[in-house]
Design goal:
The structure holds two protein chains of two kinds.
Chain A: H1 2-9, E1 13-14, H2 15-25, H3 34-46, E2 50-52, E3 68-71, H4 73-95
Antiparallel strand pairs in A: 1-3, 2-3
Chain B: H1 2-16, H2 21-87, H3 89-118, E1 129-136, E2 141-144, H4 148-157, E3 161-175, E4 181-188, H5 192-196, E5 202-203, E6 218-221, H6 223-230, E7 240-243, E8 246-253, E9 266-269, H7 274-277, H8 279-283, E10 291-296, H9 302-319, E11 331-336, H10 337-342, H11 346-387, H12 392-420, H13 422-429, H14 443-478, H15 487-522, E12 533-539, H16 548-564, E13 568-574, E14 586-588, E15 590-591, E16 604-610, H17 614-617, E17 622-625, E18 639-643, H18 644-651, E19 660-662, E20 670-676, E21 691-695, E22 703-710, H19 718-728, E23 735-739, H20 740-747, H21 749-783, H22 785-793, H23 798-827, H24 843-869, H25 873-878
Parallel strand pairs in B: 4-9, 6-8, 16-21, 18-20
Antiparallel strand pairs in B: 1-2, 1-10, 1-11, 3-4, 3-7, 3-10, 5-8, 6-9, 7-8, 12-22, 12-23, 13-22, 14-16, 15-19, 17-20, 18-21, 19-20
Helix pairs in contact in B: 1-2, 2-12, 3-11, 3-12, 3-14, 11-14, 11-15, 11-21, 12-14, 15-21, 15-23, 15-24, 16-19, 21-23, 21-24, 23-24
Classes of the chains: A mainly alpha, B alpha+beta.
Chain lengths: 105, 880
């Protein structure tokens, strides 16, 4: 779920693009299937964290069945809050020397 | 390639069906495009392996997502359904109550059927237990018990049994705990409970040395007696009690199991019984007193055991031709104990289960109708939802969820109903089977109730949901409150009404027949007057009253004392009282002047021992000769009185008074001194047997029933008579103190309660069906008020409108009755076994029920009909 939010933090994306983005960002470690992806999208839509974009890019190869999703303000806040929480957890882990090398974001 | 692609897509689309309809509707097409792209890329990058991996991940992903989505959708539907219910409290209440009654009736009766007929006997290896009975039909011997010698022979010679035990019942007197107490005692082989597979709750089982002559007296308490008399205190084990003349030690307490053939307080080994222990009794092959039970070896069937035991029977016939002459047709009857314990209950319970099922069907039809009626009002809502994109399947699911919730709440209510009625039901079932104590609400009953609720929701929800499918499209088009219901739906509603009336008719017939049968039973002349008669059981202490003289002296002095008591008209004693149980003393005899022909059956009669004023006390008419008198004592010739049936049977037109017979092969002769009227000894519905009464003074009894004719309410003198008893012997208890009226009521309690239960179901059905018809007619009138207005505007009179509406309702009822009649003619045969002197097609019942049903329909239709007749044409037309 967090991964989907992160993927949408950049551009508004359609479903397949979200899958690719998540796969790319996690170097292939997280691979979503269509079932899980749309289960997540449904919940994010219901919770108002993402919305379906009305307008669509006028690209030539665009399939009209594609829908584009955009992160809402609330979605962005939740994603940020989650990122902060993880950051805090990470700094604790670092302080305890659980993480060898601090990575630069 | 393209075809492979489209095949993959088709398969993917099929896979998506695992997901709920909504989900597919929202995301299906999109998911397909995403998958399409994934598929293309997987093929490009990973080849066949990549595609296979994608499929694997996709399938797993969808199956992981689906359950959660289904639950979420059910929750959403349920939420909506609950909102709808709150918005329509009237409908909800009616539906829940109807379903609750329908489901409750079923789970209640099922709890009985489950415990009594479905579950295995609560003994270890209960399915291997058999009951043995000797029979010699040509000697009038059916269900004969066993003598000691016979028990030993069958035990030694059978190959199919790995245990054979004996049982008989007697009574002891428990002293030292307040008033003396009669204790019903089962006298059994030491390994009786081992063969039944029963382990004591506390303490130990009997051991072989407990059954040795002269062993210390021990007893096992039944669970019920332990709870009743000792409050379930386990420390009673090893305590000693004085019973009759001996100290007895409690060695164990039985678990709660059905007790058969009798409900006993305690059990003792066979050596505890003084009669069973007498050498003369043991030696006498004809002294038959004990019931015998066997446990079949593993893997042996009842028919194998039967064949084996009949082999033993023919051995006995060869070895003892004098005891089992070929003429008597001697054999052994072997039956499964389970069958023995439940066959009385089976027909009644199955009839009741069927009746409960019918009540549920009516309830379903009624709720379906309520649903259909509501659908008319919900048409706009449904149409709007359809317009907003809810597919038909979706709506179907929503409506089914609603009826499922209704059925679930109804089922919960039903469980409460049946739980509330459980104790009544247990005491009802106890009249048919010793297994009644096993009845309770367990997991099986809960599961059954849930299954019934699901079935109910399908039955009551499908029709309206299907009907909804057809109308959602038109709903918006017509756009008004006045949208007329489709012809199809109206027909469906009429059909449901007809079905309800038909099933109600069926149930009413069933109840009517049972009531008529019970009424007939009530009017049977028992042959005696039960009014103002007190009865009590007096079992003498066998150690103290060990001779016939002592027994006679006790009863004579006690009866004399009672006669002088104020409020007492007369008093007598007897071996048993009429209408009570199945105790029977059948014997053969020979008539003077007729030498018995070998191979010919001897005359047979039931013998009864009564004291001198017995016939007076019960007002049994003396038809010829005389009854017994003080003069009929030991030392003078034995006398007897026969009943009218025996007199006709054996003497025909001759006067039996003065004739003699012998019950001991001509050694002694008894003279008949009178003929009395027939008495229903074994039940009001049973035929009278040939009976010979003999005098108690000449044949003293150890255990007798006292009958006392009183001037006023018999129970009011009971205490005084018990005090008199203590005055004669302070250690002598009285048991089963009750009036003869109570005995009589008890004897017909089973048919009475069955009739009542069936009537309850039928009344329920009638109420539901009648309100159903009323409701349908009201709705029809409401919907047709425009039409009615037009009719009245063009000159129809209110009376005509009234008749029209009534006519339509009655037409439905007529078809229902016709259908029910056909069903009843086919089904009431199943009731035959429960009926007494009433045919299963009793015309009076059929006509009566049709009239009752017609009246109920008329009343139910009258209210809406009157409303129709009062329609104001102006208002009705203005609505348009």
């Amino acid at each position: 779920m967090f991964h989907v939010l992160l993927a949408l933090a950049g551009d508004d994306l359609h479903g397949y693009a979200i899958l690719k983005e998540v796969e790319l960002r996690t170097s292939g470690k997280v691979k979503l299937s269509t079932g899980t992806l749309y289960g997540i999208i449904k919940r994010l839509l219901a919770d108002g964290m993402i919305v379906e974009r009305r307008s669509r890019p006028a690209e030539a190869d665009d399939d009209e069945r594609r829908r584009y999703y955009r992160l809402t303000e609330r979605g962005r806040e939740v994603a940020a809050a989650e990122a902060e929480r993880m950051d805090e957890v990470l700094s604790i882990a670092r302080a305890r020397n659980l993480l060898k090398k601090p990575r630069t974001a | 390639m393209a075809s492979a692609d489209s095949r993959a897509l088709r398969f993917y689309r099929a896979l998506l069906r695992v997901l709920p309809f909504d989900f597919r509707g929202d995301f299906g097409p999109e998911m397909e495009t995403v998958f399409h792209e994934q598929h293309k890329e997987a093929g490009r990058r990973g080849g066949v392996a990549g595609v296979l991996r994608l499929w694997w991940e996709t399938i797993v992903g969808i199956f992981k997502t689906a359950p959660g989505e289904h639950v979420a959708m059910f929750a959403q539907d349920a939420n909506f359904a609950l909102r709808m219910m709150r918005k329509n409290p009237g409908f909800t209440l009616a539906a829940v109550l109807t379903l609750g009654l329908g489901i409750g009736a079923n789970s209640a009766i099922f709890s009985v059927v489950n415990a009594v007929l479905l579950k295995p006997l609560p003994y270890e290896h209960g399915d291997r237990l058999v009951m043995l009975q000797q029979q010699a039909p040509r000697a009038g011997m059916l269900g004969q018990p066993f003598s000691v010698a016979e028990t030993n022979d069958y035990r030694a010679q059978s190959h199919s049994l790995d245990g054979l035990v004996e049982y008989h019942n007697m009574n002891f007197i428990l002293l030292g705990r307040g008033e003396p107490e009669r204790v019903e005692t089962g006298v059994v082989s030491w390994n009786y409970f081992d063969v039944f597979g029963l382990k004591p709750l506390f303490g130990r089982n009997f051991r072989p040395d407990d059954e040795q002559p002269g062993a210390p007296a021990v007893l096992m308490l039944s669970y019920e007696y332990w709870i009743r008399s000792f409050g379930g205190d386990p420390t009673v084990v090893n305590k000693t009690f004085t019973m009759n003349d001996k100290l007895h030690t409690v060695i164990g307490i039985l678990p709660p199991v059905p007790q058969y053939p009798d409900e006993n307080d305690v059990y003792m080994p066979t050596t505890a019984c003084p009669f069973r222990s007498r050498p003369a009794f043991i030696a006498n092959r004809q002294a038959r007193m004990m019931r015998v039970f066997g446990r079949m070896k593993p893997g042996i069937t009842v028919s194998q055991a039967r064949a084996d035991l009949n082999g033993v029977a023919s051995n006995l016939q060869k070895a003892y031709p004098k005891d089992y002459p070929p003429s008597i047709d001697y054999s052994i009857r072997t039956s499964a104990l389970e069958e023995e314990l439940t066959h009385n209950a089976r027909p009644t319970m199955l009839v009741l289960l069927g009746a409960a099922g019918f009540v549920l069907l009516i309830a379903c039809a009624n709720v379906a109708n309520l649903n259909l009626a509501r659908m008319v009002r919900r048409e706009r809502e449904l149409a709007v939802r359809a317009a907003l994109g809810a597919g038909r399947v979706r709506m179907f699911r929503q409506l089914l969820t609603e009826s499922f919730l209704l059925a679930l709440i109804g089922g919960g209510l039903g469980l409460l109903f049946s739980w509330g009625g459980l104790n009544l039901l247990i005491s009802f079932a106890a009249r048919f089977t010793p297994r009644a104590r096993e009845i309770h609400m367990d997991g099986t009953v809960l599961l059954f109730t849930l299954a019934v609720a699901v079935l109910t929701s399908v039955l009551s929800g499908t029709a309206p949901a299907l009907a909804a499918r057809d109308t959602v499209v038109d709903g918006l088009k017509e756009g008004g409150v006045q949208s007329t219901i489709g012809v199809g739906r109206r027909r469906l509603r009429s059909l449901l009404i007809v079905a309800q009336v038909a099933v109600s008719f069926l149930l009413l017939i069933g109840a009517g027949l049972m009531l008529r049968s019970f009424q007939k039973l009530q009017h049977v002349d028992p042959g005696f007057q039960p009014e103002n008669v007190l009865t009590m059981q007096i079992g003498l202490d066998f150690a103290k009253y060990n001779t016939g003289d002592k027994q006679r002296a006790f009863f004579e002095s006690f009866l004399d004392k009672i006669q002088t008591q104020s409020g007492v008209k007369s008093a007598a004693a007897s071996m048993m009282i009429p209408l009570n149980g199945n105790m029977r003393m059948t014997g053969d005899f020979q008539l003077e002047g007729q030498t018995p022909i070998p191979g010919q059956k001897l005359p047979v009669a039931d013998f009864r021992v009564v004291s001198e004023s017995y016939f007076d006390t019960l007002h049994i008419p003396i038809l010829q000769g005389r009854g017994f008198t003080r003069a009929d004592r030991p030392g003078v010739p034995d006398v007897a009185v026969v009943n009218r049936t025996a007199a006709r049977h054996y003497w025909g037109t001759q006067d039996p008074v003065g004739k003699r017979f012998s019950a001991d092969n001509g050694q002694t002769w008894t003279q008949i001194v009178g003929v009395v009227g027939d008495v229903k000894q074994y039940g009001l519905d049973k035929d009278t047997a040939d009976e010979i009464y003999v005098s108690m003074a000449q044949n003293p009894l150890m255990d007798a029933v006292l009958v006392v004719k009183t001037e006023a309410e018999p129970m009011s003198v009971a205490r005084g008579i018990i005090e008199l008893l203590y005055a004669v012997d302070p250690n002598q208890p009285a048991a089963r103190v009750q009036s003869l009226e109570q005995v009589r009521a008890e004897s017909v309690a089973a048919p009475r309660l069955t009739a009542n239960l069936l009537s309850l179901f039928a009344l329920l059905a009638l109420t539901i069906a009648a309100t159903g018809i009323g409701g349908v007619m009201a709705l029809a009138v409401g919907q047709r008020s425009h039409e009615i207005g037009v009719r009245m505007a063009i000159g129809a009179r209110p009376g005509e409108i009234l008749r029209m509406v009534l006519g339509q309702g009655m037409t439905l009822a007529f078809f229902g009755v016709a259908l029910g009649l056909a069903g009843a003619l086919a089904l009431t045969r199943l009731l035959q076994r429960l009926l007494f002197e009433v045919g299963p097609t009793d015309p009076l019942t059929f006509v009566g029920v049709a009239v009752v049903l017609g009246m109920a329909t008329l009343v139910a239709c009258y209210v809406p009909a009157r409303r129709a007749a009062r329609v104001d044409p102006i208002i009705a037309l203005r609505v348009e």
